[in-house]
Amino acid sequence: AQSVAQPEDQVNVAEGNPLTVKCTYSVSGNPYLFWYVQYPNRGLQFLLKYITGDNLVKGSYGFEAEFNKSQTSFHLKKPSALVSDSALYFCAVRVSGGSYIPTFGRGTSLIVHP
Amino acid sequence: EAGVTQFPSHSVIEKGQTVTLRCDPISGHDNLYWYRRVMGKEIKFLLHFVKESKQDESGMPNNRFLAERTGGTYSTLKVQPAELEDSGVYFCASSQDVGGQGLSYGYTFGSGTRLTVV
């Protein structure tokens, strides 16, 4: 079985400050990890993924995520938040060689204050 | 290129009625997925089409839900009769990856249909 936990329903951060949106996962095997973002009235957009290789993955809009195998985490980060980053963020996981259908988390609402 | 299109964007129906949701994937994407998010909860997989064939429908909640993809283009998801617990946002996604793995390109999602059953 595979699962994802996003422990925070909401994250608040001031514009210009660094942001972190947390994600931990559980899979039986090697994980493939994804972050998606949903802006208001829009579909989910693919941000970045970890498949293999370098643990630090860079994605769209200046976001990055670090794969930490020992902590089974894949936290999303950005050095300097923008008000326009305010959105709903979803972490997803699937296991290498297993079901190709990813399991999504509950989502974390990021609010960036001016 | 045009994205994944879903309509209607919102639908409010009474319990017991029928609703049909439509999804137009990105042209050329053989893989089409339906997902649902109940308020505040995870996005749950419903089913996966490869062209017109159902590859995996393990997430369909019950036989009140019927998905079709005639001709391998657009897809419809019909709920009949609708129940209160069917309320949520229904997302459609498509992918061009071979085998539907979504590894190379990720999935492209539509903006969803918000279904409210009253």
Estimate the strand proportion of chain B.
over 45%
- CA radius of gyration of chain A: 13 Å
- Overall shape of chain B: globular
Given helix and strand content, the structural type of chain B is mainly beta
Oligomeric assembly: heterodimer
What is the count of β-strands of chain B?
11
| Ends distance of chain B | 37 Å
Mean pLDDT of chain B: 90
Number of helices of chain A: 0
What are the segments of chain A in which pLDDT stays under 50 over at least 5 consecutive residues? none
Major sheet of chain A: 6 strands, mixed
Largest sheet of chain B: 7 strands, mixed
The pLDDT mean of chain A sits at 92
Distance between the termini of chain A: 41 Å
In terms of DSSP E residues, the strand content of chain A is: over 45%
**Fraction of residues in H or I helices of chain A:** under 10%
- What's the overall geometry of chain A? globular
Blueprint (SSEs and pairs):
The complex is a heterodimer of chains A (114) and B (118).
Chain A: E1 3-5, E2 10-14, E3 19-21, E4 24-26, E5 31-38, E6 44-50, E7 56-58, E8 64-68, E9 73-78, E10 87-95, E11 103-104, E12 108-113
Parallel strand pairs in A: 2-12
Antiparallel strand pairs in A: 1-4, 3-9, 5-6, 5-10, 7-8, 8-9, 10-11, 10-12
Chain B: E1 5-7, E2 10-13, E3 19-24, E4 31-37, E5 43-50, E6 53-56, E7 65-68, E8 75-79, E9 88-95, E10 108-109, E11 113-117
Parallel strand pairs in B: 2-11
Antiparallel strand pairs in B: 1-3, 3-8, 4-5, 4-9, 5-6, 7-8, 9-10, 9-11
